[in-house]
# Entry
Amino acid sequence: MKEKLEQLKAQLRDELTAVADVRSLDDLRIKYLGKKGQITDLLKGMKDLSGEEKKSFGMLVNQLKQQAAESISKRTEELKELEIKKEIELMPEFDLTIPVKEDRGSYHPITLVQRECERIFTTMGFNVEDYPEVVTDYECFEAVNVPKDHPARDMQDTYYLENGELLKSQTSAAQNAILKKYGPQLMEKGMPIRAIFPGRCFRNEATDATHENTFFQMEGVMVDKNISISNLIYFMKTMLSEVFQKDIKVRLRPGFFPFVEPGFELDISCLICGGDEGCPSCNHSGWLELCPCGMIHPEVLKEGGIDPEKYTGFAFGLGLTRLAMMKYGIKDIRDLNSGSLKVMSQFTDDK
# Structure
């Protein structure tokens, strides 16, 4: 038995030296160390040995097994280094005189629109805030006046997670946190709360030319004494005029949202069809719903630690995805999440 063990040592050593690639080396590993390998087979011959001989021979077999594993591992590293060297030798020489390609990628249309909106609102004194995409039920609904039994929840097919949290279906999920963050430190100094918080939202709904299950919004709030709907209209028209570099035709119509009272839908005249003929992007109406908005509900202010008897405010949820569609003439919202560089790069030359 010991002679066979020594023969295996020598045989393995010779075959390790002869093997020329990693794949062949793996076959060699299975040949010796696999479940039916030659070293494993040595243990089957121990049944005819005495108790003391089994102990001694078993120790020798385990030593051989360990040595074989170490030798194969070392040889693997050697062969990998040789393969890398061969690849380097086969590579063509690098010519430093070849002109560098200066073509670079462009920003996504939504990114460009978001940055432009942030710039505009920043010049009007708004702070830009960030907020997580995974939120609690309280943040997304209860804190903005949508209790568990409220029928408005049926309007949003929400993605709930196994831990009870959810993918935010609206950027309003950040509103309570913003009011609590800025309310105490600004209200005591007689300064208004002005903040925007852009982000990605998710809703489990059918997709078409104007609806997607993943889209971008920008929530905005302003709270101070004597804030009115006129302030809301002024800020929104100013922002739209800056984004499109021209006066935009807008309309304000009543809309129900539990977190504002009164609530409105701010629509803009479709810039793809001109607002006259109608097209799939505006559902052939000539108008595109862009910004649900209104005066912040007293209960929402109260939940955010602000006295609704002293202060009022407005809130809006600007649709960045639809804004990008209007700015760049994108007829189908699904193009924005297509991942197609060919499709995306045609909307802007910005680098």
Observations:
- The chain has a mean pLDDT of 84.
